[in-house]
Every structure is written in structure tokens, then in C-alpha cells.
Input
Amino acid sequence: MTKSETKLLVGIGVLILLIDIFLLKIWVADIEPNLFMSNGIAFPRFKSIGINLLITIVLYFIKKRYSILFLINAIVCPLLFTFFWNSWIENHPYSETNYHFKIQDRNLRLNISENPNTYEIYELDPNPTDSLKIIEIGMNKKIGDSILLEGWNKGEFFDMYFYNNNLIGLPESPNPIKLNKKK
Output
């Protein structure tokens, strides 16, 4: 192998690495991982290994020199994917804010989570064995200075809004409900 062929091989290897970094970063951003996606990291890693091994086998019969690049890439890709996955989780941490309120002598709690963007409304029962009864669970979206809570109840979609410590649109109460933040 001549010096110019070696430079070409290294150049192609660097180009493949840059393409990997770009595509894997977009792939992880599209997935938007969170702490609760423990199995979510395994499949994409195996997929990237499989794709690179298939390319390695095809190139082995066409251009043997280039097949080694994709064999190395089959090792590098899952490591890069894991790095971007962990970096995303580190830069988008899980957080949850809890609010308490009452409706008709019932104590309720609203949890609003970020990464993943979900909400839950629970009824707090003071004495039974199971002290939490799930009333609503759904996704939330930040819209301006309010949060849209998208829910599902009795076969129908509905929207509620959380704005200025008020819950607006709860199916059980047509009036805005003042919430108290739990410290």
C-alpha cells in the first residue's frame, strides 16, 4: 500500500466518522431519551452494528481495503451512540413538580414532569392500603407561559391548561382550580 493510498484510506475513515457523528446525534435527538428508556439504547446500538457489518461484508467482496473501515466503524458507532445517549440524558435531566388541590372534599395531586413531558393526576386517600388512585395520565407541552395537558378520559381526548398555578379544563370541574405547589 502506497503512501497516497494510506492517506486516502485515512481520509475516508475520517469522513465516515464525521458522517457517523452527524447522523447519530440527529438519531438520538429524534429519540429524545430519558431515564425511563432502559431498553431504548440496546436496539439502536445493535442496528448500527448490523448495518456496518453488512456494509463490511459487501465491501469485502468489492474493495477489501475499505471493508476494514466499516469493521472498525461497527465498534465505534455503538460507542458514539452511547456517548450521545448519555449526553442527552445529562443535558435534559428528569424533573417533576407537584401541586396539591381539592375538589369536593377530595385531595388531589398534579405531577408535571419534564423529560419525559408527562403529567399525572392522583387522588390521595388517607387510609387505604393503596393511598394513590390514578385519575388522569397524559402528555404535556409548553406553550408560551402555560402548559398544555393532553389527556384521555372515557374514550375522548381533552385538553387542560396549567397557567399561573391554576388548572383550567379539568373534566370534573368547569371552573379554574387554584393549585398549591408542594415544597
Q: What stands out?
A: The mean pLDDT is 87.
